Amino acid sequence: MAMHTLLLRGQRYLEPVIAIIFFVFWALAETGTHPILPGLLRSVLPWWAALLGVSIAIAVCRIWPLVAMGVSTLVVVGQLLFPYSAVFTHTDWPIYLGFLIVVLGVSAAVRDRWRPVSFAFAIGIAVSVAGLLVGWGRMDWYGPIADTSRGATSDVGMIVANRITIFAIALILSIGAWLLGFFGRAWQQKLQNDALLAQTTDDLRAAEVDLLVSQERDRIAQDVHDIMAHSLSVIIAQADGARFVAPARPEAVSESLENIAASARTSLTEVRMLIETLITDPVGHSAPRIAELDELVDRMRTAGLDVALEQFGDPEPLTSTQELAVYRIVQESLTNALKHAGREPVARVALDWRGNGLAITVASNGEPSSRSEPLTTSRGLYGMRERARLAGGWLTCGPVDDTPGGYIVTAFIPTDAAVETAA
């Protein structure tokens, strides 16, 4: 990672370093061919300006590609205006190869909307340089066209063919440099996209882990709430009952204490089971089943809740998650009835298997009293709705308008057969 960062930082200085080396090399080479430097500067100042322009274009071709194209265009225009002092000739014509670096850098750096302009620039530079080399007689590799008036002979066809070859070579080199920059940029973008995708994947994986941890924490909290809220509600009801009836029925105190102890033991057992199964089976730990609802109803009766359990139809198999949801929904509903229905609470639990799933109805009512608190949105109600949703069903709850102290919970849990039929 450190090496990659170092390479990225060093890459921005690549073209400026190349430009400096390019300028110094050709400056020393040209100076070596002229022993008198002042005379050289006076006679070929446009040549030096052209060399400096090419070097500047190389230096900024990737940082400011539009500037590089503008400077290169000015160099070519200047050489057209000063053909005998600015154009690179027999010994220094390779300076024009610096434009290939400019074309490559511009193609790699320019934005998509400027890409057609950069391609036109590559074509224009190639044609202009080839024209400067052959049009002004600066590349007489094959000799000038002979003056026929003096009796000289010349193969005009060969000269034309050679000059067409120069144009073709210039175009091939320039277009090749442009394509190299284009595909180089595409490859670099692919690497960046791959790195971004890998980083995004890691972030999503970390977020997924955090979500799973949060969901597991919420599930544990909900299980602990359901267990403890139910047990403590039973204990409180038994303790209050024993306190009120103690003067008239002392023997009832012993019965209440036995019920309190039994409820506490049951709660302790469920908490221990929860902790143990989290270690041995953290995903789908064993939990209370629908078959244990009878025991739940018996415990609620001993706590003072007049409750009846009815089933309609033939039970169908449910998943462990669905059975746990049914048990907790009934448990929370009866616990709320015991806590909030006031004096002499009455509850009726109906499990109806006659549809495409299990319909659950828990209706409760009692004589309102000043001690009973209004049942509002709480963790228990949220937990019931969430359990029903995770089991593939739904849950609604609310007070009964025409029944003082009345409250009803309705839920539906689809069976596996119903889910397969819908699919």
UniProtKB/TrEMBL annotation:
<keyword id="KW-0472">Membrane</keyword>
<feature type="transmembrane region" description="Helical">
    <location>
        <begin position="156"/>
        <end position="183"/>
    </location>
</feature>
<dbReference type="GO" id="GO:0000155">
    <property type="term" value="F:phosphorelay sensor kinase activity"/>
</dbReference>
<feature type="domain" description="Signal transduction histidine kinase subgroup 3 dimerisation and phosphoacceptor">
    <location>
        <begin position="216"/>
        <end position="278"/>
    </location>
</feature>
<dbReference type="GO" id="GO:0046983">
    <property type="term" value="F:protein dimerization activity"/>
</dbReference>
<feature type="domain" description="Histidine kinase/HSP90-like ATPase">
    <location>
        <begin position="323"/>
        <end position="415"/>
    </location>
</feature>
<keyword id="KW-1133">Transmembrane helix</keyword>
<feature type="transmembrane region" description="Helical">
    <location>
        <begin position="12"/>
        <end position="29"/>
    </location>
</feature>
<dbReference type="GO" id="GO:0005524">
    <property type="term" value="F:ATP binding"/>
</dbReference>
<dbReference type="InterPro" id="IPR050482">
    <property type="entry name" value="Sensor_HK_TwoCompSys"/>
</dbReference>
<keyword id="KW-0808">Transferase</keyword>
<keyword id="KW-0812">Transmembrane</keyword>
<keyword id="KW-0067">ATP-binding</keyword>
<dbReference type="InterPro" id="IPR003594">
    <property type="entry name" value="HATPase_dom"/>
</dbReference>
<feature type="transmembrane region" description="Helical">
    <location>
        <begin position="93"/>
        <end position="110"/>
    </location>
</feature>
<protein>
    <recommendedName>
        <fullName>histidine kinase</fullName>
        <ecNumber>2.7.13.3</ecNumber>
    </recommendedName>
</protein>
<dbReference type="GO" id="GO:0016020">
    <property type="term" value="C:membrane"/>
</dbReference>
<dbReference type="Pfam" id="PF07730">
    <property type="entry name" value="HisKA_3"/>
</dbReference>
<feature type="transmembrane region" description="Helical">
    <location>
        <begin position="117"/>
        <end position="136"/>
    </location>
</feature>
<keyword id="KW-0547">Nucleotide-binding</keyword>
<feature type="transmembrane region" description="Helical">
    <location>
        <begin position="44"/>
        <end position="61"/>
    </location>
</feature>
<keyword id="KW-0597">Phosphoprotein</keyword>
<dbReference type="InterPro" id="IPR036890">
    <property type="entry name" value="HATPase_C_sf"/>
</dbReference>
<dbReference type="InterPro" id="IPR011712">
    <property type="entry name" value="Sig_transdc_His_kin_sub3_dim/P"/>
</dbReference>
<feature type="transmembrane region" description="Helical">
    <location>
        <begin position="66"/>
        <end position="87"/>
    </location>
</feature>
<keyword id="KW-0418">Kinase</keyword>
<dbReference type="Pfam" id="PF02518">
    <property type="entry name" value="HATPase_c"/>
</dbReference>
<keyword id="KW-0902">Two-component regulatory system</keyword>
